[in-house]
Amino acid sequence: MTLRVADDNSLSESAPYRVAVVGSGPRGLSVVERLAARLLAAPPAHPVDIHLIDSVQVGCGRVWRTDQPEWFLMNTVAGEVSAYSGPQDGGPHRPGAGPSLAEWWSSADANCPGPHGYAPRAVHGRYMLYVLSTIEATLPAGVRLHRTTAAVADLERAADGYRLTFSDGTRLDADRVVLTTGHTRPRLTGAQRELAEFAAARPRLSYIRGDSTADMPLDRIPAGSAVGILGLGLSFYDVMAALTLGRGGAFRDDGIGGLVYEPSGDEPLLVAGSRSAMPLPARGRNQKDANHRYTPVLFTADQVRRARPHGPYDFRADIVPWLLAEVELVYYATELRHRAGERAAREFTAEVARAAESGPPKPAAAADRYGVGDLPPLDLDRLARPFAGRTFAGPEEFSKALLSAVEDDLAHAELGNVDSPLKAALDVLRDTRALIREFVDFGGLLPASHRDDFIGWYNPRSSFLAAGPPRVRLRQVAALVSAGTLRVVGPDTRFTGDAATGRFLCSSPYVTDSHVRVDTVIDARVPSPDLHRDPSPLTRRLVERGLWTSFRNGTGADAFDTGGVAVTGSPFHPMDSSGAPDEGLYVLGIPTEHTRWFMQAGSSRPGFWTDFVRDADAIAAHALSPLESLTRTVLDTV
């Protein structure tokens, strides 16, 4: 195979084989790391160029860029994060063998809190740049890495591969192209569009759309103004930090395990709300080492397929009973271990496992016999909507209920993700993601169940209960509420434009006198990827050219258009408009969300390969496979 550079009419057998990786966040970096590891293990006889392309910062991308403030924290402890596909082995750091984030951070910063600490996102960005530098420094002879800071505006098939056109008009031809383009800014629809249009017609108002918080124009919000924050998830905590710590405020210990907020006077009043009205619960204090792997007892692929050997599956009927049984098992076994010891917990687990031979068991029934049936029953809906069914006489009454719920969550979180029955049980939702993907990805569920049961019901509850922030964020919430700097409006918070006053109105139907008028509304929710609403020039051209299509689960009237890019199984070639896979292209990560699940995962674990690395390696192996024929051609000419 030969390659030509755009605008060069000559062809040469010595032209390098080129792989372009578009998007250099964690997914793109992982692909480059595996390309380099494979080339290091088997140096090619033919020259190879790897082009890593990013419009913001090559090596870490927009979300992890290194110039963002350090109050934006990661939500995974540093010891569980690695951008290398193998641990340190005593040799030089290189593709396939290098330090975890925690190991690198501790060597670079004497104030590193250790493997159970949470790194600022900018620190993770610097770690990613370090990984890229070790990749570049150890490439074998004949392999070059090119860092290109530019936006790709178009991609088309060419005679010898693919042609990429950058936003400035320059072009690059490549043999293989990997697209790991990350989070986008989808076109606004529905209520978000109405809020934006309401603000656009009134100069004093501002609507800030959902995005990476570091890219939001928060500096223009006046001190002392009232700001509505839509959503209480992970992005809410970033907005909260930016408008308090970022405005010169400070938190200090109150001497009894909590925090007190000391305002600077430059903060706005934060008026936040969501359907649940509960800020995302905290992750349990980490008690697991980086190599921890949870092995399910009840919720296994064999158990599910014993009842239904072949899909598509009904998520609620076929998957949920086994998953909830596993969650309950850990919940009661953890408490039993505390009360009666490890042996009693093992006996309880064995008894419940035997009951699974006739279908999904009910661990709660056995819990009574073992003396732990007095625990509050586990209910994902109740946990995700703690104020459902309640009404409040006013904002003060709701704030007291909120602070009580936050304190209760922090008590569970302080016990840890091994010792707290609740946090250990909810970690099962996190630890079984790979197993759930086996049943969900690529249309593994019935279309209606995929749309309603999985995306509509399970996904938001799983995200709420198993993907929380560091504990300090909940302590900060309590301090801000107590200081009057933060007000959570109440359940089912509504954000509307009030034409009578020309301002935004925030209110809860379940809290009397909860109405608050604000001049700015911030959508603090991560936009869901949707191929149909992605306005980026590259996406639009890929769709127009028929290189990207949307994955539809099912056919006919029952079909569900997911909005995710349609791809094959590993190594994830996009399906073009003719229904055929384009085997020179690969799509990984965020653009394929809903075709696959939980593609926002941002790293692998040190010490063993997760799906994150396996996906990257499969792409690297396939992208480099033509080198075998090129090498034979070179040898034949010697």
Per DSSP E runs of 2 or more residues, the count of β-strands stands at 20
Instruction: Give the fraction of residues assigned to helices.
Output: 25-40%
Question: What is the CATH class name of the largest domain?
Answer: Alpha Beta
Question: What is the fold named in CATH at topology level of the largest domain?
Answer: FAD/NAD(P)-binding domain
Q: For this structure, what is the CATH homologous superfamily of the largest domain?
A: FAD/NAD(P)-binding domain
**Number of DSSP helices?**
18
Major sheet details:
5 strands, parallel
**Spatial strand sequence of the major β-sheet:** 3-2-1-7-20
Gap from first CA to last CA: 17 Å
Q: Low-confidence parts lasting 5 or more residues at pLDDT below 50? A: 1-12, 634-638
Overall number of domains: 3
Rg calculated over all Cα atoms = 26 Å
The fraction of residues in strands falls at 5-15%
Just name the CATH architecture of the largest domain: 3-Layer(bba) Sandwich
- Which shape, going by the Cα principal axes? globular
* Secondary-structure class: alpha/beta
The mean pLDDT is 95
